[in-house]
Amino acid sequence: MYKKIRKAVFPVGGLGTRFLPATKSMPKEMLPVLNKPLIHHAFEEARNAGIEQFIFITGRNKNSINDHFDHAIELENFLEFKNNKDMLFLSKDCLIEPGNIVFLRQQQPLGLGHAVWCARNIIGDEPFAVILADDMFIEDRKCGILTEMIQYFQSDTTANIIGISKINISESKKYGIVKIGDGDIVEDMIEKPEVSDAPSGLAIVGRYILQPDIFYYLKGTEADKGGEIQLTNAMKKMLANSKFRAYRTNAYRLDCGNYLGYLEANVRFSLQNSEFSEPIKEMLKNILG
Ligand code: UTP
Fold this sequence. Notes:
- By secondary structure, this protein is of the alpha/beta class.
- The chain contains eleven helices and 13 strands.
- Strand 9 (about 175-180) and strand 10 form a beta hairpin.
- It is an enzyme of class 2 (transferase).
């Protein structure tokens, strides 16, 4: 029985249509919040949680993500020449031990479920984490939601854990919604329901710990009306034979998959940053008169 979560999957193969035209040739996951791209924040969260193997599911126009996790030789030479240690550290901080970084190509963006399924041969037979870089959180402990979820998982390593967070139920159509039974046991989940069909105001957020059985269910999951294979639909089928526990976070969620959430993330992260907090407060005061 595996107790440690060693591997994390980062699906980054989507088209990012909500961010067009910015994402026409640039991956959504490379949009920066403060000075780090979304995917870099996600990587840091995983590294803080003790993840050892980083598996990126990429697609066309996503090569800058590969480059971000590689050496930038000219830049490093230049910074070494200038003896600029701080910047050199920033440039090299996301280098992953050789052999522990995998880029898999999802040749067609057939949905989040399909992206996760692409990782099956790399994951093998052990539970693993999935992190969606466009879901960010602001929390008191600052260790990251994934760290908390992995701790939670330790109490029952046979279960799957899904991160959930309260939403305004009028927005149910944007999320996977869960029905919780006794304690934290998930009884049902529905992908993007109408408000009238939503079993609760609790939405799945972009953090999962999944047992490898999920690949069997993903393989058998049909595409939805929009042509996408949904992870929620595969998990719903798996519910019949496998336990799903909900990890409810009270951390403030920032949906960086749309403009407003992304802008808010930049403002909130700036306000939390010792260097930028005062200047940004001044700036906001000026803007608001
Ligand atoms: P999203 O639905 O937020 O991303 O998927 P998207 O499809 O790129 O964005 P829109 O809706 O068109 O604006 C959540 C995550 O799953 C990845 C995305 O890259 C994103 O990080 N994803 C989505 C894949 O890896 N492959 C897919 O086929 C779909």
